[in-house]
Structure of DNA polymerase III subunit delta:
Amino acid sequence: MSVWDDVVGQEAVISVLCGAAAAARGLAEQREARAGSGVEAPPSATGSGSAMTHAWLITGPPGSGRSNAALAFAAALQCTGPVPGCGQCKPCRDVMSGAHPDVVRLATEKLIITLDEVKELIGEAQRRPWTGRWRVILVEDADRMAERTTNVLLKSIEEPPPQTVWLLCTPSADDVLPTIRSRCRLITLRIPPAGAVADLLVRRDGADPALAARAARASQSHIGLARHLATDPDAWERRRRLLHAPVSLRSVGDAVLAAADLVESAESEAQTRTAERDAAERADLMRALGLEGEGRVPPALRAQIRALEEDQKRRAKRARTDVLDRAMIDLLSFYRDVLAAQMGSDVERVNIDLAEQIDRAAASTGPEQSLARIAAIEECRGRLRSNAAPLLAVEALMIQLRPQAR
Ligand SMILES: [Zn+2]
């Protein structure tokens, strides 16, 4: 067992990161030796050409395991075992469980990373490591940052303290400003093979092997989606209903209803996902404020409760956006299959369980229509991400997906 076990199908990336972690260990040992001998350290311990560097941009398509890879790298940097990333030593285990004091992780569940959050991270980045050899600052979704925020971050990435390492994760290198990109070493994850994703679901989540294989294929190797399909019994039914909708819509009225249905089910799924945690956080805060069991909140403390509620509202919105985005990926996979059928291509279908609907859709339309629908889904995804009203965006999409005479 090592920290790389869950980074599936990414052998090339793992070998680069392992090399960097080994180089980092060498640098840290040199530094410790110098500190012991009283000789001053050179200004940069990680010059160009070294396998190790201070800023990394870890990219890969959604679901390919970017943050898993970043976390495993953080563990390998802190590892004290025989091989960096052993998975057995205390630092490795602490990093993987989120308990290591020198790995600061910003995993935003909101749509935007705020300037205050970035300033706090920069403060964290300035500290010396408490117990580890490196201070690692891991930012998931580094693309969710306004330009002004990014510019503040840039300064810290340019001249970090010698023991600080920044790990930024984004879907692609184009998702951050060129100024950030040019200061980071780029790591690109590929879409993992479906077989590797299925193996992970069986090993890590205890999924049934046949179900795991089906889930990996239906999710097109998106690890999070595959896990969802393999572990949530309602997920297949929701997916079937979703993919059935576009071929069964008869009128604009149907399209509007289907849109409402989709947005509503996204809301309720997001709510189930966040409700429990919201309640626990509120209880924690009430306890911290000494208000446990009290019905009324004194006016002086209301601002803190309100701040928590605002945070939770933003998180609920992000959860809803994620659920809708997953629906969009499912729809894309459906029209990809339709298009493949129309082109007479023999690529393996994603939706093996929907052969009849796919064949029907393929026979009743042409490839140009399928391409237009794929473009419409991409456009809807973009609008959902840019904060458009979900119902309006999905309605517009459903109207475009409605079967039309050729
Ligand atoms: Zn270790």
